[in-house]
Amino acid sequence: MARVPFHYVDLRAFSYETEDEARVEAALRTFLPEEFEVERAESRGHHGDRIVVRSARVERADDVRHVLAQVAAAPDYDRIFDELDDRITDNCELFLRFDKQAAFRGEVSLGSGITFRAKVEAYPAKREAALENARDALDAVRDETEHGRD
After folding, report:
1. Organism's domain of life (predicted)?
2. 149 contacts 2 by C-beta, under 8 angstroms
């Protein structure tokens, strides 16, 4: 895939007081290229409990391609692809949620715990154009992944 029609991909996971912060970061890293910087921000919950937010913004084309390859390798890829129409907003953003526990084990699976938000390139900036670009990109990265060219 020569061109990646995404401006960026944001990944985010919360580490609650009962969770091991390092494990949550490891889960997030399942999607990221090696040595990629993960940001850390502390917050407080409604009852004063500590919440650590781990996040990464992926902007370079090769890095975005890497993240998309992880998504394309997911066992529920067909479901993701089939639901694209419901997952792209009028602001040309693609939203997915992945299972944090599965990601900690190195697996990519739809679920809860990790939020994936990607800004899809579309000119003009219309949902339909973003949907077509996202479909083409995910199809292309899936083909590359299946043929071992990741």
Report:
1. Archaea
2. no
Q: DSSP string of 48-102?
A: S-EEEEEEEEE-SHHHHHHHHHHHHTSTTHHHHHHTHHHHB-TTSEEEEEEEHHH
| Residue at 55 is within a domain | yes
In DSSP terms, which residues pair with 14 in a beta bridge? 53
CATH of the domain at 38: 3.30.1440.10
Examine residue 1 and state whether it is found in any structural domain, yes or no: no
Rounded CA-CA distance 8/61 in Å is 9
d(CA 82, CA 4): 20
Q: Could you tell me the mean pLDDT of each successive run of 10 residues in the chain, 150 residues long?
A: 84 93 96 95 88 96 94 93 95 97 96 97 93 93 72
Q: How many structural domains are present in the chain?
A: 1
Which residues have C-beta within 8 Å of that of residue 123, sequence separation ≥ 6? Answer: 129
Q: What does R_g of the chain's alpha carbons equal in angstroms?
A: 15
